[in-house]
Amino acid sequence: MDRYSATRLVREGLRGQSGWRPVWRRASPKPRYQVVVIGGGGHGLATAYYLAKVHKVTDVAVIERGWLGGGNTGRNTTVIRSNYYYAESARLYDFALRLYEGLSRELNYNIMFSPRGMITLVHSRRELEGAARSVGAMRLNGVDARMISKDEIARRIPALDMSATARFPVLGGFVQERAGVARHDAVVWGYARGASALGVDIVENCEVTGFLGEPGRRIDGVSTRRGDIRADKVVTCVAGHSTELARRAGFELPITSYALQAFVTEPVKPVLDVVVLSTASGAYLSQSDKGGLVIGGGLDLYPSYAQRGGAASARKVLGAVADQFPSFASIRLLRQWAGIVDVTPDSSPILGAAPMKGLYLNCGWGTGGFKSIPAGGWLTAHHVATEEVHDIARPFTLDRFATGALIDEAAASGIVH
Length: 417
Ligand SMILES: Cc1cc2nc3c(=O)[nH]c(=O)nc-3n(C[C@H](O)[C@H](O)[C@H](O)COP(=O)(O)OP(=O)(O)OC[C@H]3O[C@@H](n4cnc5c(N)ncnc54)[C@H](O)[C@@H]3O)c2cc1C
What we know:
Layout: H1 6-14, E1 32-38, H2 42-55, E2 60-63, E3 79-80, H3 87-101, H4 103-107, E4 118-122, H5 125-140, E5 145-148, H6 150-156, E6 172-176, E7 180-181, H7 184-197, E8 201-203, E9 208-214, E10 218-224, E11 227-236, H8 242-249, E12 256-265, E13 275-278, E14 284-287, E15 293-303, H9 311-324, E16 333-343, E17 350-353, E18 359-363, H10 373-386, H11 400-403
Parallel strand pairs: 1-2, 1-11, 2-8, 4-13, 11-18
Antiparallel strand pairs: 3-7, 4-6, 5-6, 9-10, 10-11, 12-15, 12-16, 13-14, 14-15, 17-18
The structure holds flavin-adenine dinucleotide.
């Protein structure tokens, strides 16, 4: 792998940018691998990278039906934070945040991580009590959250309507200063580059259509549109398509797939240097480096595989933003799209073994799996390579839906479910 550096930039500048090589090697599928990872989103690529880097398991293929990052990882609003309520979640998401903090250096690839802070707005006295309790829990769990006053909010978010007659009056809020955003594509490309350099085969345009072995008992590989591939172990990292693949492997997952929308406005001068989330409306926004306001909100509350989203949710989210930031109401919308997110009954992910030999799960991240990509990949690789579920991942195994040990993060997942 060519290392990127300032010296390299200067050298390439002087010789007409002729020395850059493709960021990853495009491979054709081989008949057999030690590990096949299905899904070339952030979690699949991070799993392959940590398998090769940490565990020296390099006989690995990532099989992607479209292009790398064409799923939710390339469609999300890129908020990274660890301000969750339960200790189990705090451990998981803070582990991810710590990995994100060093990721550009680890991958030698600028993922543009910008820890600009995230402010959660509170709009009623009742919510204020809930926020204080959440902040208390987060601090006990070692997460850097604190309550902030109306005055500090007004100072840090000048465009926000703080008047007493505002549609969503602001009573206060809380902040996590280490939270922020990163560039979604760069996370995908950085992991792909790192994995490929370590020997992982990355195969695009290759849909997995079924499994080899005895469905319901043992998985020996996958069938794809480009032929069968045998493998000792198969990992699924396919987000909203997890239930489809599970069914083909002979079991059901407690996941419902919904469309979640995102919106980007035309670029404007810098007006917002934190991520802002409103608990009352569920709408949240940040400003990208290019100047566009990146806006998200609640799910389209009906199961769907259409990556467009419906008008009702769009109107609700954009209306809430216009109510809270009156000066933004005249900014034109540039793009809108949706991704298909995999929501579990407790809004927490599923990590660990499938109910059959040879198959491993990394799914159920729902609306919040971008922030967890480094941890999801790291923990999945640990399980696949060592056959032991890591302590951080143990509360998130599939059997919690049988034991009842749910980790209900519907509130802390930030947006309305
Ligand atoms: C609009 C929107 C906003 C979001 N905002 C945030 C946010 O601000 N912060 C946050 O943390 N999270 C956010 N999320 C959630 C986050 O994007 C996802 O949880 C995360 O990207 C999931 O990553 P993944 O690698 O599991 O899935 P994906 O990136 O979806 O990758 C799965 C891949 O599997 C491939 N695949 C599917 N079926 C097959 C098959 N049969 N064979 C081969 N390949 C297959 C798909 O093509 C896809 O590329 C948001 C999601 C959306 C849609």
